[in-house]
Amino acid sequence: MGFCDIVTFSKFPQYEVPLGKRRLVWRSKLSIDLKWGRVVALGASLPLLLSTAVAAESISTPLPESRAPCAAFAVDAEYVSQFLVMDLEGGNVPLRIPIQFLEDFWDHKQGFADTAQLFRVEIGTFQPVSRKESGRRNKEGIWNWITFVVKDVLPLERLAVLSAESWSAVIGGDQARRLESYAPSPGPFGLAEIRSDAPQPTSDFRTNTFIAQSNDGVLAAVLSCNALGSFPFPGCQHWFRAAGMDVELSYRRTELPNWKALQEDVTTFLICATRKHP
After folding, report:
1. Whose CB among 69, 83, 138, 179 lies 3.0–4.6 Å from 126's, allowing a Cys bridge?
2. pTM of the complete model beyond 0.85
3. Residue 152 and residue 52 share a domain
4. Are 179 and 218 in contact (CB under 8 A)?
5. What are the average pLDDT values for consecutive 10-residue runs of the chain, which has 278 residues?
């Protein structure tokens, strides 16, 4: 089946989504396999035009009404002070991080300076997720966590062009192209999509490049996501600026509906981590 196929079933049935499963199953005639992004229909009566992309991306982690990414920044918390070295921009960004977010022992050294810092947190609660715990959740098919790295990388405009012209597996993409030369098309969840004019190795794009702009037209985010059906477990790389640093956020594509909330939560956390304290 393709990206958008006609399937049929006899009625609109109830469905259930068991926690930790990769498969969403309707009790009657329709089954959506989230592992491969495919739709399987058994039986026929009422035709329905169903987008497998919308179906697969609709199973995101529910977000609580109230989120507190800075809850760990308590007065009596144990902190590690370190510096993020910004090689491309020049200078350092001072960070003050609750120690439970730093899993590796070398990150616990006060005054440590490095060019990148990795975080792994649960979606919604923003509680740290250890390497061991993330491995356990992977085995059980539970992907309600994200990783993000703060570092110094290329400007967002360059990342958007590289994603569309190089990382999307096009043939002979123009990496020197300017972002303004694209004609963005409407994308999902408030995003816009840009595409290369270069030939594709397959009929479908293997990577979707999405961008988001602020109300004043400034580029606010770039997302490079595996196209549904191109990989068994499609994911997204998500870049933005926060608290004077470049951020690279990684998650399963099923979390794409939450992209804006995830960016907001990470931004809030980093603002707390860079806030000056007496």
Report:
1. 69
2. no
3. no
4. no
5. 33 35 36 36 32 55 95 96 95 97 95 96 97 95 95 97 89 93 96 92 78 94 92 93 98 97 98 84
